Known about the structure:
Elements: E1 3-8, H1 17-27, E2 35-40, E3 59-63, H2 67-75, E4 79-81, H3 93-100, E5 105-107, E6 122-123, H4 129-142, H5 144-161, H6 164-168
Parallel strand pairs: 1-2, 1-4, 2-3, 4-5, 5-6
Amino acid sequence: DAFIISSFGNIISNKLNDYTCRALKNIESKIDKKICFVLVGETIGDGKKIDKYLEKNFILKTGYTNIDEFKDFMKYSDVIVNLRYPPLGETSAALIQILKNGKPCIINPDGSFAEIPQNCVYRVSRDSLENDLEKALLELINNKELREKIGKNAKEYIKNEYNDSKILKDF
Length: 171
């Protein structure tokens, strides 16, 4: 019965999950829905610093999941937060799956994330990350039409830009 917000992949400090935890704690009293933040993935190194935010039925970690569990968590997520800073030059396989599944996703426009069209995600600025994140979460939680529009655009983008013929065109 909860509105599910998720983050996917290894839980490490450059995913900025601590910002998401603080933003959710700040907005919890401003919404009339039960919310839950699920960090889906294995904790690596300094990602353990997120443990101080864990709270049963509000903020929790799954630990390592197999691919079927990963897909199930994504399927039942209402909004996904996929932040990265500093970017390590990588493309996010999780982000591609999120977009492919038509899930509304909050990102920051750094590194390869800058290539994702504006209408396919909800962007937040690193300069005012916590405030932008609170605003983004409130807007997405309260606006089903916006979630559906972003999800539809994301799905269409992946269909058009990540299909086999487009990817293999230059080979």
